[in-house]
Recover the amino acids of this structure.
């Protein structure tokens, strides 16, 4: 019944279509495209960027000019990749089937979570409440509603299967159960990098749940250590990982940067799972609000520890779920906080919350006589129940449809740009846009939909702030914005790899020279020197002006125009 309710809430995703990264996966599925994107079917669709491919991407094929040319974004996810290949082979580019496939993984995830709670938790009330909280968790929305994020559900499915096999093996099941668990753990790692968090649960099981001698408990996780070690070495030797991009920090190649961002991102992710406030806002709100978010995150972590501590002291099962959940957060801090990362985190926190709520509610019959702390615990319990059993079910359909809404936002921007057949021979230049996402996917979207695609697509600035455009010469446009030509949230370049004053970016139809920078290394003034005069018939100019896409009226030499994209 619970599975049916959860699936019913996200059924509208069947009609959500494709969104953003989905188009890149589909594009790569059709075979080599002159090396624009690094991935290939059937096993390697989650390679996005490699240094050998990047220049072509930057030179008018989907990435902005400020992208770090030696950036790398390559995920070793052959299992998840294969599921997309199966979709394409069986049903072609039919979004309804792809979403239905994701729904099947979502239903299996809930079923396995309920099974795990049933086998590891004795209190039936806690099992029921934890199951409901996990099944209706709005953080699952992207895993089921965004086709390219299906890997989050796949990782959790294989991770739960591995955990259940490990539990049964330690309770006396045969060697076949152990081998099945190890295979599931390997498949989990080959489905997505968040699978490292599953090892956190296995380690927590040995350290907090079992009561055997320590050497025996540590020996039980040795196969998982070996499997994870082989995976990590293979991943490194084959050149997978991330580097040079704003959204990702590779713990192996950038350990100091990873340690720097870990505490803040840890608090934001954990508090978001607890309160539904934090992670999704982290990358949407201006940077000046981040101290407020961090303060909220730290406060929620403190409240959670205080609220759960009595039950943690008493229940070893609860210690297992809690420690496993906390350990699963650590690898997630390698990327920008977002609720779509929280599948494994919620798996352990829901029993923790349910246990603590159960304890707090025991004081309700005598609440009038209870001391202040007991009353406060009842208040916290009520808040947690409201968030996870009322707010979450209401949010789940919305978060599941959010990828579709974002995809339609990008598609509407695409439709506002020229669609004439002769665009194939043109260089489309967008003087300014509010966000790079609006344009990055346009080339692959148009290719897949058999619509005219520009020979080159450049955008000069991506900022919601005002930008000035000064015509310095027939082929030179100086662009300036006091807050930067792209904002701090840009994923195309790591904040640690700054552009330099005087640096030039050479592309086939234009050269960008950086003249002035913000203190954090983002350009505020750049000269764009084009291969031909700006009025050349090769160039098609557009701009976002006050939320509308229109032709960009080029200023005369010596003139300046100002544009506000928002």
């Amino acid at each position: 019944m619970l599975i049916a309710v959860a699936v019913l809430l996200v059924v509208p995703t069947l009609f959500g279509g494709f969104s953003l990264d989905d188009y890149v996966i589909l594009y790569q599925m059709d075979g080599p495209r002159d090396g624009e994107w690094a991935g290939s079917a059937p096993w390697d669709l989650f390679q996005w960027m490699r240094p050998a491919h990047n220049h072509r991407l930057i030179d008018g094929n989907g990435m902005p000019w400020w992208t770090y040319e030696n950036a790398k974004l390559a995920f070793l996810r052959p299992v998840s990749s294969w599921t997309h290949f199966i979709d394409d082979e069986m049903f072609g580019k039919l979004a309804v089937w792809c979403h239905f496939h994701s729904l099947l993984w979502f239903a299996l995830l809930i079923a396995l979570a309920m099974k795990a709670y049933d086998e590891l938790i004795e209190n039936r009330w806690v099992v029921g409440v934890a199951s409901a909280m996990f099944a209706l968790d709005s953080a699952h929305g992207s895993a089921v509603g965004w086709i390219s994020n299906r890997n989050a559900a796949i990782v959790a499915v294989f991770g739960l299967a591995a955990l259940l096999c490990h539990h049964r093996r330690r309770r006396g099941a045969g060697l076949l159960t152990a081998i099945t668990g190890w295979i599931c753990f390997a498949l989990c790692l080959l489905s997505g990098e968040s699978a490292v968090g599953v090892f956190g649960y296995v380690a927590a099981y040995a350290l907090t749940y079992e009561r055997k001698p320590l050497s025996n408990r540590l020996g039980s996780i040795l196969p998982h250590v070996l499997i994870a070690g082989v995976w990590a070495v293979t991943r490194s030797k084959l050149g997978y990982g991330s580097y040079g991009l704003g959204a990702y920090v590779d713990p192996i190649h950038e350990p100091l940067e990873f340690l720097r961002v870990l505490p803040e991102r840890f608090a934001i992710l954990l508090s978001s799972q607890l309160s539904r406030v934090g992670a999704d806002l982290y990358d949407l709100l201006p940077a000046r609000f981040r101290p407020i978010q961090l303060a909220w995150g730290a406060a929620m972590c403190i409240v959670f520890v205080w609220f759960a501590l009595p039950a943690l002291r008493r229940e070893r099962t609860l210690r297992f779920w809690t420690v496993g959940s906390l350990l699963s957060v650590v690898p997630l801090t390698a990327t920008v906080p977002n609720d779509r990362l929280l599948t494994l985190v919620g798996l352990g926190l829901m029993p923790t919350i349910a246990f603590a709520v159960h304890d707090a509610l025991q004081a309700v019959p005598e609440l009038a006589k209870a001391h202040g702390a007991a009353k406060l615990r009842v208040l916290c319990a009520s808040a947690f129940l409201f968030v996870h059993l009322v707010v979450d079910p209401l949010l789940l359909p919305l978060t599941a449809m959010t990828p579709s809404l974002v995809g339609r936002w990008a598609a509407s921007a695409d439709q506002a740009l020229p669609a004439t057949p002769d665009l194939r021979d043109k260089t489309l230049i967008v003087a300014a846009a509010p966000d790079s996402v609006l344009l990055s996917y346009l080339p692959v979207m148009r290719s897949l939909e058999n619509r005219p695609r520009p020979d080159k697509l450049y955008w000069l600035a991506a900022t919601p702030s005002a930008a000035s455009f000064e015509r310095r010469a027939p082929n030179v446009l100086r662009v300036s914005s006091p807050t930067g030509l792209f904002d701090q949230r840009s994923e195309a370049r790591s904040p640690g790899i700054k552009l330099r004053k005087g640096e030039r970016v050479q592309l086939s139809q234009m050269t960008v020279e950086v003249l002035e920078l913000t203190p954090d290394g983002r350009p505020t003034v750049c000269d764009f020197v084009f291969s031909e005069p700006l009025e050349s018939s090769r160039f098609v100019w557009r701009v976002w002006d006050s939320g509308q896409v229109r032709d960009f009226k080029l200023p005369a030499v010596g003139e300046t125009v100002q544009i506000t994209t928002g």
The mean pLDDT is 90. The radius of gyration is 25 Å.
